Every structure is written in structure tokens, then in C-alpha cells.
Amino acid sequence: MIKFLRSIPEYTTAFFARYPAVLSGYIIYCYLFISIMRLFYKVKHQGASLFDAYDIFSAAPFMWLLAVSLVKVIEYRTKLHQHETQQLVHEKELQIKDTQLKTMHEVVKGLQHQINNPLAIIALLISKTKRSVKDNQDAIKNIESIEQSANSIAQALEDFQRAELYETDHIGSLEGKIAAIPKES
């Protein structure tokens, strides 16, 4: 029961923030009810003139203006709140993407360190092997194919390290998504 009583103000505030016209209607109709009761009381006990009716209801246009202003303020506040919420979500997404990019750069640096040493040995052995089999064209084609593959590995690592953003490619249902260098570098 106490929990229910404590939740009433939150519920009421949320309701009127969602439906501000209802709140302004309550304000205007409460004012009109009180004004009509005052007029009836005055007519019954003292007699009322046209000036008394004007005096009692003269604030009605101002109450209407107040109610309309209240609705506009609540609508503006709601739009501002939604905009700020969207801004926070966008900033959080940017922070997550920045963290992901930094993590990817750190992983690429580690991979470069582990892969560049064997690639250097492969490049050295490719040159040496090319010189030793310069008469065998099939062997030279195979060696050049190995050299191109090694160069593309080195280039892919370099592109990942320099990337300011990255995309993901779906490579299959079992593997899922992988990071890919953006199409436009």
C-alpha cells in the first residue's frame, strides 16, 4: 500500500508530461467551476449584477493563456529531453566505436609484430630463391605468387593499422562477422 502511495506522484507527473492538454483542461475547468460556484453564491446571498459576473470571469482568458503556455512549455521540455537523450545515445555509440577502433589498432599492432618477422624472412628467401632458380620459369612464377601473397598480407596489416574506421563483412553462418578495411580508403 505504501509503495502504491509513493508511486502516485511519479505516475501523475508522467501522465501530465505525456498529456499536457489534459492538465491544462483540468486547470481551466477547475477555475470555471470555482467561478461559477462563486457567482451562484453571490446571486443567492447578495444578488449579482452584470459587473459581478464580469469580475468573477475576467480571469478566464488569462487562465486559458496560462493553460496554452503550460502545454507549450511541457511540449518544448519533452522535445528537449528527447533531443538530449538522442545526443547521449549518439555520444555513447561514438565512444564505443572509438574504443573498438583503438582495440582493433592494438590487435593489428600485435599481429604486425608477430607477422612481420616471418614476412621479412620470406621476402629475404624469395629474393635468394629467385636468383638460384632464374632458369626455371615455373618456379619463378610460383615464387612471384608467394611474393604477391606476402606483400598483400603486409599491405592488409598496414591498411588496418591506418584505418580511421572499419566495416564488417559477413563471412558465413558459423563464423559470423569479421572486421574489414573500408571500401574507400
Describe this structure in words.
- The protein has 185 residues and is mainly alpha-helical.
- The chain has five helices and two strands.
- A two-stranded antiparallel ribbon has the order 1-2.
- β1 (167-170) and β2 form a beta hairpin.
- α1 crosses α2 (20-45) and α2 packs antiparallel against α3 (50-57).
- The two termini are 63 Å apart.
Summarize the structure.
The chain is mostly helical.
Give me the secondary-structure topology.
Blueprint: H1 2-18, H2 20-45, H3 50-57, H4 60-132, H5 137-162, E1 167-170, E2 177-180
Helix pairs in contact: 1-2, 2-3, 2-4, 4-5
Q: Radius of gyration, Cα only, in angstroms?
A: 38 Å
Shape: rod-shaped
Distance between the termini: 63 Å
Continuous helix count = 5
Helix content class: over 70%
DSSP strand content: under 5%
Reading the helices and strands in chain order gives HHHHHEE
Largest sheet strand order: 1-2
Q: Return residue spans where pLDDT drops below 50 for at least 5 consecutive residues.
A: none
Q: Biggest sheet, in brief?
A: 2 strands, antiparallel
Which key terms come to mind for this protein?
single chain, 185 residues, mainly alpha, two-stranded antiparallel ribbon
